Amino acid sequence: MAVINFNLVNVFNTLKEKGKVYTIRKRRTVHRGYVTVMFRRRKVGEAIIDEVGKVNVDEGTVNGQSLEKYLPFSGFESVKDWVDVARMLHGRSEDLYLYEVIWVEEDKRKFKLGKYEVMVYEFLKKHRGRRFTVQKLCLELGVSDVKKLLKATKSLARKGLINRVTIDTGRERVIVWVD
User: Which residue of 103, 140, 154, 177 has the lowest C-beta tally within 10 Å?
Assistant: First the structure.
């Protein structure tokens, strides 16, 4: 399994406390999916990693969009601080990439859940007992692909991680978390 190492406490704490972190890395990885998470060379868990895009540190952008969008999950107070640390760690490299790293809790590791399954599971766990349309879930999670979200919820139900998924065939599709 591939490895991602965190040395900065603020970045690692963001991953653990918020469930995900955006991190700027020098090397472009071909690996997507599960990785072993290391903190200061010690294995601490697993996560799912996905590339967001190429970073322009001079402009503070990724794929032409401001890094501001990703700041709440970066571990930094400002884009300037984030970019300054990236420059310090990686030099004036032109090849810097932004990655989304989603923490996988111990109880989900055995199932090898996909990115969307982890996102849906965490969201529904946090909002137990509430009803959500798939469109509302997409909006809350920042996901545009309704089909991927539906597939993820059905998969979670099959694996027994959520007790019931109700999908209405009428005008609205509804997902329900039941304790």
Answer: 140
Higher-confidence residue: 62 or 152? 62
By C-alpha distance, which of 91, 156, 93 is closest to 123?
Answer: 156
Asked if residue 74 has pLDDT above 70, the reply is: yes
102: nearest Cα among 113, 110, 91: 113
List the domain range (segments joined by +) for residue 73: 2-104
* Boundary-marking domain end, from 55, 89, 104: 104
Whole-number pLDDT of residue 178? 47
Rounded distance between C-alpha atoms, residue 160 and residue 42, angstroms? 31
Specify the pTM: 0.66
Q: What type of residue is 16? A: K
Whether 27 and 99 share a structural domain:
yes
**Largest pairwise CA distance in the chain:** 55
CATH of residue 46's domain is 2.30.130.30
10 Å CB burial of residue 146 (0-12, 13-18, 19+) is middle
- Last residue of some domain: 43, 70, 104? 104
